[in-house]
């Protein structure tokens, strides 16, 4: 395993880490024992960072992480998120009383005294610009409740604004072969500002595994079903904002990246990690097999300059026009 510093903090985290949205809920059926086995295998292979949120399974993902990391609090770093259990547009959701309660609830579920990275969970731009929530996070940091804080954002504009907030140490963004815009301007600025980049949805909700076809279906409780067109939250969180059938078609055209790299998923994440401004990728998982598949990314051969140019041209001319929603 290789490790990268999270911006200019003292947190050195595994470049392939894992998100826990899938084991908490909203990705169809999941099995707790398989999830715990997967978490253990990841840690055995050197993974020392996991991303979660208080709304993943209504806190269940945090509880699973608590079980898996018991006694390893100094070695295994956890990032969690808050605000989406309430009305994200209501300023009252970000008062000291509200945020402190969110924090205490997560600490209780995680059975920890401190959260390594506490992130605002995709708040509206108006809340970010108001700025009061950052004052609350500063207080929690001073009290030792949180080690560092950051923001999970939906758009480049939101991310750019957050870089101007002195205490922000991380941005969590959607970035993959189907969603390359953040690399143009946001990532270099974040690097210069000493802010780490956590890449979520590196496989575009599974499109970049190459395993789907136009007739693939998803369970009723899977966001790839109930949010396919942005019905419940930002459309970019599902299939990178692409219409599903178009995404399948585009993924098929990218199948060449797997040649000599094992499979499309590993190749896709290798492409992300070749960007020096990125701290880590946080793919999801449900079981040990998926942990092992994703960790295979570490040993995948790099892309040539010609291949990188080809991928950029593909995005510019074949993908970009089909992305829906602000990004």
What do these coordinates show?
- This is Aldo/keto reductase.
- It holds the Pfam family Aldo_ket_red.
- InterPro entries: AKR, AKR2_Oxidoreductase, NAD(P)_OxRdtase_dom_sf, NADP_OxRdtase_dom.
- With 327 residues, the protein is α/β, with parallel strands linked by helices.
- It has one domain (3-322): Alpha-Beta Barrel (TIM Barrel).
- It is 37% helix and 14% strand.
- The protein has 13 helices and ten strands.
- The strands form two sheets. An eight-stranded parallel sheet has the order 3-4-5-6-7-8-9-10, covered by helices on one side. The protein has a two-stranded antiparallel sheet with strand order 1-2.
- Helix 3 (60-69) links the parallel strand 4 and strand 5 (77-82).
- Helix 2 (32-44) packs parallel to helix 12 (288-295).
- The protein is globular.
């Amino acid at each position: 395993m290789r490790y990268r510093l999270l911006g200019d903090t003292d947190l050195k985290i595994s470049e392939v880490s894992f998100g826990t949205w899938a084991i908490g809920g909203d990705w169809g059926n999941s099995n707790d024992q398989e999830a715990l086995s997967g978490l253990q295998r990841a840690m055995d292979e050197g993974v020392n960072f996991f991303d979660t949120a208080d709304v993943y399974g209504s806190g269940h993902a945090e509880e699973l992480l608590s079980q898996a990391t018991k006694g390893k609090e100094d070695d295994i770093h956890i990032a969690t998120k808050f605000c989406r259990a309430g009305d994200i547009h209501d300023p009252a959701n970000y008062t000291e009383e509200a945020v402190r309660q969110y924090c205490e609830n997560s600490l209780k579920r995680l059975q920890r005294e401190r959260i390594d990275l506490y992130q605002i969970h995709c708040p509206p731009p108006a809340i970010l610009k108001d700025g009061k929530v950052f004052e609350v996070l500063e207080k929690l940091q001073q009290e030792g409740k949180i080690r560092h804080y950051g923001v999970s954002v939906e758009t480049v504009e939101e991310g750019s604004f957050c870089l101007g907030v002195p205490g922000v140490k991380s941005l969590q963004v959607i970035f993959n072969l189907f969603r390359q815009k953040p690399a143009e301007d946001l990532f270099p600025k974040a690097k210069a500002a000493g802010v780490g980049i956590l890449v979520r949805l590196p496989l575009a909700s599974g499109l970049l595994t190459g395993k789907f076809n136009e007739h693939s279906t998803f369970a009723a409780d899977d966001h790839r079903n109930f949010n396919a067109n942005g019905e419940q939250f930002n459309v970019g969180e599902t299939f990178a904002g692409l219409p599903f059938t178009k995404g399948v078609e585009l993924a098929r055209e990218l199948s060449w990246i797997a040649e000599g790299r094992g499979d499309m998923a590993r190749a896709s994440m290798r492409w992300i990690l070749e960007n020096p401004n990125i701290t880590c990728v946080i793919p999801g998982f449900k079981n040990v097999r998926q942990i092992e598949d994703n960790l295979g990314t570490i040993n995948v051969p790099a892309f040539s300059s010609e291949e990188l140019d080809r991928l950029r041209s593909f995005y510019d001319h074949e993908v970009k026009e089909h992305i829906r929603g602000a990004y």
